[in-house]
Write a structure and sequence with these properties.
single chain; alpha+beta; five-stranded antiparallel beta sheet; four-stranded antiparallel beta sheet
């Protein structure tokens, strides 16, 4: 049996070891989280609730800490839209992913700024009766280097309007900060706009793999430290 002072010393050592292990694990997890935040932060905009009173309303600051033209507040993702960006709250098109969709009635494009930046990929669902294209830039306001482009195939179905919806996405290298949605006004609709993944609404497999590896590294470090302390 350990003497009182020896027992106390053992307890202090063990407790200190556990605390050190916890601190190291927390620091490792924080470092991992910070290093992968841009690629792991998959953000999906579905435009539900942007317009309620008038059914159609300007997106405004709905996703940027402000309100839509209908006075509705959404989640603040730090995502800003050009003034011509509109949302329909309850469009019941066949095959539509969600009730709300993004579209525009004026200008040749809608521009979206994501000031924090995102990596890995970009994707969305769309319905189009027009030639349309998407361009991803590394600067705000559709400026800087072009990281990726997508040409949208006309998937219009006669007598149906926004009925046919297809998923599309693209992967790229670098940090993107804006996207330009170009096409015919009132001829293209978008939904489930997804930052950080080439598949609408779904994180990239590589992101999940990195997270699992990171947790494994933290767990291994904790086990090693605990074994040494024992």
């Amino acid at each position: 049996m350990l003497a009182d002072h020896e027992a106390a010393g053992f307890f202090q050592f063990t407790t200190g070891g556990i605390m050190r292990n916890f601190t190291l694990a927390a620091a490792a997890f924080a470092a991992f989280t910070m290093s992968t935040a841009a690629s792991a932060a998959v953000v999906v905009l579905d435009f539900d609730g942007v317009a309620t009173t008038n059914n159609v309303a300007a997106v405004g600051g709905f996703y940027n800490g402000g309100v839509s033209a209908d006075g509705n507040s959404g989640t603040n993702y730090g995502v800003a839209f050009s003034s011509n960006a509109l949302a329909i709250n309850s469009y019941n098109g066949s095959g539509e992913p969600n009730p709300g969709i993004l579209f525009f009635l004026s200008g040749g494009a809608v521009t979206i700024d994501y000031a924090a930046g995102f990596t890995t990929g970009f994707s969305f669902n769309y319905s189009s009766n027009s030639q349309a294209s998407i361009t991803v830039y590394d600067g705000l306001g559709a400026t800087g280097n072009v990281l990726a482009t997508l040409n949208l195939v006309n998937n219009f179905q006669s007598g149906c309007g926004y009925c046919a919806w297809d998923p599309i996405g693209v992967s790229f290298a670098g940090i993107a900060k804006s996207i330009d949605f170009a096409g015919g006004a009132n001829f293209v609709g978008y939904d489930n706009i997804t930052f950080g993944s080439a598949t609408p609404g779904i994180p990239e497999p590589a992101t999940w793999a990195m997270m699992i590896i990171g947790f494994g590294m933290v767990g291994s470090a904790l086990r090693r430290r605990t074994a040494v302390a024992a």
